[in-house]
DNA sequence: TATTGTTATACTCTATAACTATA
DNA sequence: TATAGTTATAGAGTATAACAATA
């Protein structure tokens, strides 16, 4: 009797896994370069882009980026020094400081977002059905805990 | 007369682009955690994994990782202090130092590689044709200059 | 002279722990 | 007492510039 086990060494799967690693490295690097073109570090760009979606208390920024809250102080300090972000008081709780992008900060965030063409270009060559299939595949990858 | 231009704001494409960003963030973080479980930083894990494929001179490590050669000195120092990597002389050129994994380093590199199940799992749910399509798509993304 | 690897320096990111001001 | 944000500290990664050994 033959027992079917998952073949972890399926060559095609391994090739895809390696390609995913390569895409991640490429994307990450392109993101750093795009940030640098805007005079930002990667971490600063990530925080600014996050706040451009929605202003957030310091602690919640840390939760989203999965790092310690103490790190956010310095990153927001540097964004604030460049007048891209402001610390605003929270009406309900005087301990809380809400970080929000300035108008200039919002502009930089938009420009940064628009400059991330890397991932967009290859998608142009796909049919709608292919993009749908890719979307579902990626959703599975993000959703898997 | 209507001119057809690429629609950069196609909602499906934007969704896929955002998903790619999410996958990259997820993968990157999982890699850091896998490295940490082996007592390594992300950079150390990347260098060790690279050397496990093939020993390389210091300068070539920097080229592969797209960083300055001076950074590699410290990373290899720390890997060498833990006896995961050795600096070996190059027969032809006495200026060159070839970094090569020790036996223990090779073991750690294999263990690290095996622990990167994150990307592999969701692929199991795909048909062979889907995986082929995904492979071609990823190849396009990596290959695009 | 040019190249390889290193050192020295400065900046940023990161986690940990202790502190402050509020709650 | 608990929580939000900060400060202090130490380790690591990064780029730049200058250096020693070798080509």
From TrEMBL, chains A, B:
**Pfam families cross-referenced by the UniProt entry:** MarR_2
Signal peptide bounds: none
Q: Which PROSITE patterns match?
A: HTH_MARR_2
Question: The HTH marR-type domain covers which part of the protein?
Answer: 13-143
InterPro entries from the UniProt entry: HTH_MarR-typ, MarR/SlyA-like, WH-like_DNA-bd_sf, WH_DNA-bd_sf
Q: Organism's domain of life?
A: Bacteria
- Specify the protein name: MarR family transcriptional regulator
């Amino acid at each position: 009797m033959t027992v079917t086990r998952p073949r972890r060494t399926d060559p095609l799967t391994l090739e895809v896994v390696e390609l995913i690693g390569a895409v991640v490295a490429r994307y990450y690097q392109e993101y750093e370069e795009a940030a640098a073109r805007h005079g930002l570090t990667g971490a600063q760009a990530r925080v600014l882009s996050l706040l451009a979606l929605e202003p957030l208390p310091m602690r919640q920024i840390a939760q989203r980026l999965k790092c310690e809250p103490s790190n956010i102080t310095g990153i927001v300090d540097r964004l604030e020094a460049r007048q891209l972000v402001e610390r605003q008081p929270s009406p309900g709780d005087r301990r809380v400081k809400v970080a929000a992008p300035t108008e200039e900060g919002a502009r930089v965030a938009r420009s940064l977002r628009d400059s991330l063409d890397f991932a967009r270009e290859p998608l142009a060559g796909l049919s709608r059905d292919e993009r749908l299939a890719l979307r579902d595949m990626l959703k599975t990858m993000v959703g898997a805990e």
